[in-house]
Amino acid sequence: MSAHQPTDLVLKQQSRVLAVAFDDGTAYQLPYEYLRVYSPSAEVKGHGPGQAVLQVGKENVTVVRAEPVGHYAVRLVFDDGHDSGLYSWDYLYKLGSNFEANWRDYLDALTQAGYERKV
After folding, report:
1. At what angle do helices 89-97 and 99-112 cross, to 10 degrees?
2. In degrees rounded to 5, what are phi and psi of residue 6?
3. Which of 115, 109, 69 lies closest to 92, judged by CA?
4. Which of 44, 49, 110, 112 could covalently link to 39 via disulfide, CB atoms 3.0 to 4.6 Å apart?
């Protein structure tokens, strides 16, 4: 069982964020781009340490649906066809609690790769 259980999960299409609240009272607004580039899928993370693939061009990605997976996760289906990441409740909590550092790392990686976000 997950250490963190969601009490609310809402896709906010206009602002392109996933609003998620947990049973300990914490709540996060996770941008779709952030969720896409930090997908727990092998396509993004690779199959081992150092194999992560930098995701570019995801500024305007949209989550078209969220599918529950048992009582432990949600599968997010993105409009770019990506649908293989299972976001466990603990992983969503971790993404929320580490948002600032993760987002900074992502933006730094884009800069190092010579990619300029188009927002």
Report:
1. 80
2. -75, 145
3. 69
4. 44
For residue 79, which amino acid is it?
Answer: D
Region label for 99, one of left (φ > 0), alpha (ψ between -120 and 50) or beta (otherwise) = alpha
Residue 100 is given by DSSP the state: H
Q: Which domains does the chain have, with CATH numbers?
A: 6-112 (3.30.2020.30)
Q: How far is CA 24 from CA 2, 5, 85, in A?
A: 13, 8, 25
Which of 50, 30, 15, 12 minimizes the C-alpha distance to 93? 30
102 alpha carbon, distance to own chain's centre: 11
Tokens of 31: 């941008």
* Whether the model pTM is above 0.90: yes
Q: In whole angstroms, what is the distance from residue 86 CA to residue 107 CA?
A: 23
Residues constituting the chain? 119
Residue indicated by tokens 């781009």: 33
Summarize pLDDT for 29-72 with one digit per residue, the tens.
999 999 999 999 988 998 888 899 999 999 999 999 999 999 99
Instruction: Give the bridge partners for 75, in sequence order.
Output: 67, 86
